[in-house]
């Protein structure tokens, strides 16, 4: 039984990342170079700026990942790369680096769906147990995904407008917090109270879909309203109220879908899974319901290449391969 070593590359947004993963779960190296400082002054990720940073960083990031893993290219079994969804220009930098590396060293090339990567981040810490429900909450995605086995994904519900992380970032922006706003809202909320009672999107409807644009508008309207009247608004209470509304919707939809699909394993994935109230509430509720919960450590919640390597391990055995015509794609089924 030979160990399978995969070099994984991820450049879908504003992190240039490479990692070597052995047998789908052992992290031999995990290098992430963040561009957040460059995007901060624009209040969000600027696609062209992201691509340029990826070009500058990618070769070095791969070299460091290989050096830290203490491996030569000939020790590898495959190269994996995020194929999408993401910023097309950004994806292409990682894809071209992966294609070149695979071609030069005669290695198979494995394309990986970014969201599959987020879910498989869990596998770096504990094996996935099926059937499971996965709540994927990031800057670009909000989805409930049912998995009956490895690499089998059924989308049970998804956002009809903003992603949760996007809502966090937009609300943070209107209360003058730096980008990305999620962690700042998280912090303010810890000393705030749910005094505003903002709407809980689609909570009463018979659907597992989400909607966060109404919540975002409600926050913005309230702020305008207070400003007009010259009343000082309590930012901590805004943050706490907003976050409470998000948590109520996420827990309600997740547990209802789990009862419906009769699943007792829950995986929460994506950058927003780093939120402390989300982590606490879900742990508490899962305990009470006898649900086995896995939320990755913070470093595996946000974008990284280790998660891509974890997912690629299963694709390796399914003979899922790409050739050198591989392109970045935004509309791909998971
Ligand atoms: O998964 P990720 O790194 O990138 C995407 O694929 O989108 O997620 C980034 C998102 C951002 O919107 C950021 O504000 C949010 O995750 N985020 C948080 C927290 N940490 C990161 N949102 C709420 N609370 C946090 N602690
Ligand atoms: Zn992501």
From TrEMBL:
It comes from the Bacteria. Its EC number is 2.3.1.234. Its cofactor is Fe(2+). Keywords: Acyltransferase, Cytoplasm, Iron, Metal-binding, Transferase, tRNA processing. It is found in: Cytoplasm. The keyword tRNA processing applies. Substrate binds at residues 136-140, 169, 182, 186, 275. One of its GO terms (cellular component) is cytoplasm. GO terms for biological process: tRNA threonylcarbamoyladenosine modification. It catalyses: L-threonylcarbamoyladenylate + adenosine(37) in tRNA = N(6)-L-threonylcarbamoyladenosine(37) in tRNA + AMP + H(+). Gene3D superfamilies: 3.30.420.40. Residues 26-309 form the Gcp-like domain. Binds 1 Fe(2+) ion per subunit. CDD domains: ASKHA_NBD_TsaD_bac. Fe cation binds at residues 114, 118, 303. One of its GO terms (molecular function) is iron ion binding. Belongs to the KAE1 / TsaD family. Required for the formation of a threonylcarbamoyl group on adenosine at position 37 (t(6)A37) in tRNAs that read codons beginning with adenine. Is involved in the transfer of the threonylcarbamoyl moiety of threonylcarbamoyl-AMP (TC-AMP) to the N6 group of A37, together with TsaE and TsaB. TsaD likely plays a direct catalytic role in this reaction. This is tRNA N6-adenosine threonylcarbamoyltransferase. It comes from Jeotgalicoccus meleagridis.
């Amino acid at each position: 039984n030979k160990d399978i070593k995969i070099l994984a590359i991820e450049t879908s947004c504003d992190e240039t990342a490479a990692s070597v993963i052995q047998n789908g779960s052992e992290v031999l190296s995990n290098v992430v170079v963040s561009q957040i400082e460059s995007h901060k002054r624009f209040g969000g990720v600027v696609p062209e700026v992201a691509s340029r940073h990826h070009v500058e960083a990618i070769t070095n990031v791969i070299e460091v990942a290989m050096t830290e893993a203490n491996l030569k290219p000939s020790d590898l079994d495959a190269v994996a790369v995020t194929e999408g969804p993401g910023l097309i220009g950004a994806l292409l930098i990682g894809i071209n680096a992966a294609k070149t590396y695979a071609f030069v060293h005669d290695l198979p090339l494995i394309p990986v769906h970014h969201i599959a990567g987020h879910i498989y981040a869990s596998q770096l810490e504990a094996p996935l147990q099926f059937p499971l429900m996965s709540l994927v909450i990031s800057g670009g995605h909000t989805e409930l995904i049912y998995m009956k086995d490895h690499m089998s994904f059924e989308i049970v519900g998804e956002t009809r407008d903003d992603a949760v992380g996007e809502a966090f970032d937009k609300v943070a922006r209107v209360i003058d917090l730096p980008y990305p706003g999620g962690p700042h809202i998280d912090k303010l909320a810890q000393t705030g109270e749910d005094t505003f009672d903002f709407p809980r999107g689609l909570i009463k409807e018979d659907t597992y879909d989400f909607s966060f644009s109404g919540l975002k508008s409600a926050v913005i309207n309230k702020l305008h309203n207070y400003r007009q009247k010259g009343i000082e608004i309590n930012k901590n209470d805004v943050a706490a109220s907003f976050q409470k509304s998000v948590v109520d919707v996420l827990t309600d939809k997740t547990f209802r879908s789990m009862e419906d699909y009769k699943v007792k394993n829950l995986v929460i994935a994506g950058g927003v899974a780093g939120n402390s109230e989300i982590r606490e509430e879900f742990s508490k509720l899962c305990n009470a319901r006898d649900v086995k919960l896995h939320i990755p450590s913070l470093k595996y919640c946000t974008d990284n290449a280790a998660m891509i390597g974890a997912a690629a391990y299963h694709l390796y055995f399914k003979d899922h391969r790409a050739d050198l015509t591989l392109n970045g794609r935004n509309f791909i089924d998971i």
